[in-house]
Amino acid sequence: MSTPAKALSARQFFSRTGVLSKWHPQFEFRPGQLEMAEAVESALLEKKHLLVDAGTGTGKTLAYLVPAILSGKRVVVSTGTKNLQEQLFFKDIPFLQQHFSRLLNVCYMKGRANYACRQKIYDAEKEPVLTGLEEVADFQIIRDWEKTTETGDRSEIKTLPEHSSAWGKVDARRDLCTGQRCLQFERCFITKMHQKAHESDIVIVNHHLFFADLAVKDGDFGGIIPDYAAVVFDEAHEIEDVAGQYFGVSVSNYQFQDVIRDVAGMSRRKQFGSQELDRILDTLRDRSETFFYLFGEADGRAGFRGHEAFLETHHEHYMDVLHAIELLGTHLQLIKDAPEESIPLFRRTQELSQRLQFWTRGGEKTYVYWIEKRGRGIFLQATPIDVSSLIQTKLFDSMNTVVLTSATLAVGGTFEFAEKRLGVKTARTLVVPSHFEYHRQALLYVPQHLPDPRSPAFTAAAAAEILKILNLSQGRAFVLFTSYQQMRLMYDRVSLAIEYPTLMQGTGPRNALLDEFRRTDGCVLFATSSFWQGVDVQGDRLSCVIIDKLPFAVPSDPVVEARIQNIREEGGNPFYDYQIPQAALTLKQGFGRLIRSSSDRGVLALLDNRITKKLYGQVFFDSLPDYGFTTNIEEVEKFFNV
Description:
The protein is an alpha/beta fold. It contains 25 helices and 18 strands. It is globular. The protein starts with 9 loop residues before the first helix and ends with a helix.
């Protein structure tokens, strides 16, 4: 029988003989889960901010969901990934719903590119927007699905290829959206998503959507997410980087190519094309290509400081592209009997002009300006050096309750690093240790004979050590690296020398590699940053995690370099105030892949013995769980033979 929500408290839910113990067939009382749930409940009731470092296996999802539901307030839950969003909505919420007598009003919201645009689908049936047999086949899948879907969320279509170009022609991005003027506005999936959100008590979003919303709330188009009383961030350690993206400015050659393509396509379909418009588009194409090629062709990221010198040398090219994008905007405004679709196109020309001017003229000392080249893409970026004041003003100062939680939020048992980086001035804090028996379940191995990771001799010596460890673990390992180059070097040296099947990041989609790893006996996966977190492989399929180096951020990265310089200018010590805490949290994330349940066992191997030889190594040890520890390979062999 369901229990009325209003009669319950967090303690009645999570205590040893509480409601959850009667619902859940595999209920295991976790004191940390109860402690966290009561802390969240109290923060919501008393309008306080809260930071919770909750170890793996705490059950933190229910520990914040239940108090949020019981609060009677609209609470936004923001997750690090869309996968976690879906887990909350399709797994955790239905489990809770079974035991509430009242309907739980919960929805999820994603970015517009995740949803189909009905009008674009109907137009594509009549107008020549598809190219090639693959796009036509993919469009058929999308069109059939559109007739039955309630949400329009592409994640429902399991048969659509991950990188389908047809989807990009029918998704609901704002670039071509006419809003309330659209014939399908009432049936629009974005309209439905907003309506559902306004009716919901719990709104599940992801960090990217949350900060996109926060960044535009003061703008002409208002917010995306309806007003809320509180927000809970799961995987909160990611929000500094995400906030930096949305409070920054980005302009690329792809954005210019897209607006040229969209204007040309729309002019054909809505019959407002002309020779003059064709000339303007050709001019913009030529001038934007010329302008972006001024920034070189070498792949990678690099800081950019020479705005004055650049403008002095290339002022003519800059003005040419600026005039061309503004001329296109003017032309779109002057079209006689212009279709509604021309309005978002005009808006994009304005946005591109503003971004281009902001970046090229530079001068904002609180931003770091940098360039990234990826294949044919050239991206001009401006990122706030320190987002803490922005997050403080836009989030903590304007919200009654913000809850930040993660398994990697505290460094050495304190929240000083997170509080400083995120602009948290007054908040309650709680460290909830994992209930796993790490001293019994996990052994941390740090070989002492390897050379310093900065030495040219490190790669060969580390490869030999990895071979030894993998033979003892019988494969079943993640080998994680701090750079793609080191990953490829190690893969080339190790993969042919072991009898176990191997996979390498980049040879297939991330989820496909993980599925293959889970299916394959003795498999070894070589990977970098995107596998350091959010990856869950339970059981003995994963019995070893090897990490090549302490994961210090690359100091020459333009954003890292600017943050280091900023801390130095303010009288701080960048190494101890920023680089070490950040690396300690990243190492904790990487090692967090191994022990995912109370029955998991395994070895964590760190090939960087600076952790035992440098004074700062203690910060890393203090931030990690209480693993067993050895510097002796024979102890590793004994552990695997138990």
